[in-house]
Amino acid sequence: MAAVYDETRTIDEASFNAVLDLIAEKYPPPEYLKLLEPGIGTGRIGMALAERGYHVTGIDISRKMLKVLAGKLARRKDALPLVFQKADVTALPFEDTSFDISVVVHLFHLVRNWQKAVAEVLRVLKPGAPLVMIATGAGKEVISINERYRQLCAECGHPAKPIGMPGLPELKEYLKGFGRSMEIIENWQWTKKVRIDEAFRHIKLRYYGMTRLVPRTVHLKVVKKLKTELRQQYGVLETEVEVPNRMRLILITR
Fold this sequence. Notes:
Elements: H1 13-26, E1 34-38, H2 46-51, E2 55-60, H3 63-75, E3 82-86, E4 101-105, H4 114-124, E5 131-135, H5 143-155, H6 168-175, E6 181-195, H7 196-204, H8 216-234, E7 240-253
Helix pairs in contact: 5-8, 7-8
């Protein structure tokens, strides 16, 4: 995914900046200076947070993703307050209460032992420090195509489901044991054009977590049927459709 990850995550620029500005306003860098981003990946969020004044520490389990991040930093003319290392979110290499805030983007649903990952992030945060989760939207996805993929997999006896955290209700329940509550902010919505062939290709190549646990034989059978259905529905797969999108902030505090 490293070489193509950024292109699968197209975000409305105004909404993107508004979300990060709200984080900086609610948790200003002078008071919440040391920021941890587990799963920093290619740095699309971490770099923007560093530009707003946070001292960002990032970890990721993928060397290839971190290599892309290193390349971005090397091409900049100015130095950002951002450091990173390869590490596992379920075993963070940091002391307790090391950070003032943590920002997590599209991570826990990709970690099998997501409960341990959440516990580790909370462990390295100072008492009462916020954990902020950002859901950046659907990328180059067409929701109806994703749903049809799930239906076809279920019909084959192999539901397409997340590798890790099933959803926010399960996370909310788990957080009760830490004395934490959850607030969801959904103020950013927009529409974008997505080509059917691109949306299908990203499913075919298993770019999304929901495809990862589906056996290969089932996956191949499902994408073949899905492609046939899409051709019947749209005729030309290069067709563009308008897709609704949104960003969400999930604020986890005491």
